[in-house]
């Protein structure tokens, strides 16, 4: 299992998990859900108590990945399999992202 904290404008909004079976789960933190001034991280992931489940990396997070030659360079230099979208996300979306969302790998996995 791999996990990453999802930050919105440098505030932790939720947790993204990839299970050992490959399934992805996204869940907002209760504090984020209860705050009326905190927006959803994406229009495709509205704020709700229930977890989001997917067999594939959610499109919102997938669109944060580098493409083309940039993807090749990152995968080669960091030794990330080109089909390991979660691994690529953990590397590429840590800083200097377009927009307000960043992804930070948790230390407990």
Q: Largest sheet, if any?
A: 5 strands, antiparallel
Tally of separate helices: 4
Shape: globular
How many beta-strand runs? 5
- Radius of gyration from CA coordinates: 14 Å
Quaternary structure classification: single chain
Q: Output the helix-strand order.
A: EEEHEHHHE
Range of strand content: 25-35%
The averaged pLDDT comes out at 93
Spatial order of strands in the largest sheet: 4-3-2-1-5
Q: Low-confidence segments, ≥5 residues, pLDDT <50?
A: none
The proportion of residues forming helix, as a percent range, comes to 25-40%
Distance between the termini: 7 Å
The SS-based structural class is alpha+beta
How many structural domains are formed by the residues? 1
Protein name: Serine/threonine-protein kinase HipA
Domain HipA N-terminal subdomain: 5-103
Pfam families: Couple_hipA
GO cellular component, one term: cytosol
Could you explain how this protein is built, in words?
By secondary structure, the chain is of the alpha+beta class. The chain has one domain. It contains 4 helices and 5 strands. The chain has helices at about 30-35, 60, 70-80, 85-90, and strands at about 1-10, 10-20, 25-30, 50-55, 100-105. The radius of gyration is 14 Å and the shape is globular. The termini are close together.
């Amino acid at each position: 299992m791999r996990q990453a904290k999802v930050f919105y404008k440098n505030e932790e909004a939720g947790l993204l998990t990839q299970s050992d079976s490959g399934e992805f789960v996204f869940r907002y933190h209760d504090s984020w859900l209860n705050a009326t001034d905190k927006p959803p991280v994406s229009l495709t992931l509205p704020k709700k108590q229930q977890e989001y489940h997917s067999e594939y990396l959610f499109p919102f997070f997938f669109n944060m990945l580098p493409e083309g030659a940039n993807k090749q360079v990152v995968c080669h230099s960091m030794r990330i399999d080109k089909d390991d979208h979660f691994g690529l996300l953990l590397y590429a979306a840590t800083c200097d992202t377009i927009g307000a969302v960043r992804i930070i790998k948790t230390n407990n996995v």
